[in-house]
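Hi W.,

Here's what went into the run:
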Amino acid sequence: MTFQQYVATQSERVNIALHRLVPEESCAPTIIHKAMRYSLFAGGKRIRPLLCMAAGEAIHPNAPGIEDAACALELIHTYSLIHDDLPALDNDDLRRGRPTNHKVFGEAMAILAGDSLLTLAFQVLAELPHCPPDRTIRIVAELAIASGTVGGMIAGQVHDLEGEHMAPSAKLLDTIHRAKTGALLRASVRIGALYAGASETQLAALSDYGEHIGLAFQIVDDLLDIEQSSEQLGKTAGKDAAQHKITFPAVYGVERSHDMAREELSAAHRALEAFGESAHWLREIANTIVNRTH
Amino acid sequence: MTFQQYVATQSERVNIALHRLVPEESCAPTIIHKAMRYSLFAGGKRIRPLLCMAAGEAIHPNAPGIEDAACALELIHTYSLIHDDLPALDNDDLRRGRPTNHKVFGEAMAILAGDSLLTLAFQVLAELPHCPPDRTIRIVAELAIASGTVGGMIAGQVHDLEGEHMAPSAKLLDTIHRAKTGALLRASVRIGALYAGASETQLAALSDYGEHIGLAFQIVDDLLDIEQSSEQLGKTAGKDAAQHKITFPAVYGVERSHDMAREELSAAHRALEAFGESAHWLREIANTIVNRTH
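Here's what came out:
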């Protein structure tokens, strides 16, 4: 199987599961389910679910139902995008080449659609059909902490908002991105590993991998915002500079940022050494994250 | 013990647990924890936690750690108030006699504070110290469904927003309130019962109680909005009529609404018959919900 075929197969698995897990558009109140599905099926790259399932494969060749756990990560990610795009936050009109949720459904519905996706993520985990209860609980805690205010995604968003008024520094940058995107990417890997029954040693190695690709992902994201057009990105380019965001190129310069992304990629590969062939797709995903152009 | 003493004791237990469960104001990023705590410790009546713990007592005289499960309900309730008060939703400046969250911390932080409380609710459940894993998972599912878009709290909010443009009808009113306030009040009772190890028969009876007091609560809420001043309520009075909300007095008239509240109270008492003295405080809470003046 080529990597492209692998990604297509796994994305399809996630999409089928999402269609099953999210109430249909005809379900009352219809408008909220339309709003949830609008952003959920807007051409997202499903990076977090892919990471989750590939981490599961590194532990066990077959973990039935893992796609449901993977969907919980996509639900959280999508909620965060909807709320981030709101006028009170990043005030963005364009996401993945389409109008943002509040542009289509209004601010009230966008706020509630985000809340709904966040809530549904935990319902999906509580209803995982093939996961032993103690493992499920650990996964719920993992997702909540990675999404939360202490080193998690919301912490990153708050630091990011506050950072707009602060001098860029390496320390602040590190704090922001470990939390804002890093925590959920790391949790994606950890949740897949936990689901598939990883030992604590395996979990530690995969967490290490998750941290490195999390950083690599954010460095590349910051670089793309400078180097690509809005059309190529499907979202407004050049916004980081316009909003005085603290980014890797702003702190380290473009050249050094490219080097750092490559260094994080190497570190991610090193973390996978003990897994041999079972971590094949995790390696490919890491390469793709660093070499992507949008 | 008088009911007043009981409420004071139990509220104190909840407040102590909340202080332990919510990150301190000094924890970085400090602003989000200040915003979360501002609304959480704003003099809420803790009705949902009280219901949860009293339902637990109806099943078992002692359920250690049940106050943590009760706190999850208060976290969800508080998040919903913060988001409901936002300019894009109810646009309210006053809550419990104090400026609303976004008036103090700004809209961006209020949105994130709501998200944070919602996320923390599930973390708290996943970390319940004394609850068997299968019971914990059922509680997580219960809370997520009651807060969600299919017959849950968000469904009620959406119907409520949409209802502003529709003719008031008994059916629409029933749909809105069963979801908007009813689902979480019912879940408060059910989660307490589940935590304490209720049988399915006991759970059904307590669910019945929860539904009746949920309806009674909302009828009284609608009546207070008409009959009391903003000062007495600690929030803007007369808003339902101003916003063309569908309320019990608007559909049934004031007199009939008072009768209905009393009928729901009687039905709630009937649902508790099999529990004898162990449901003493549940009865007192029901009486207080119907007879409150704010």
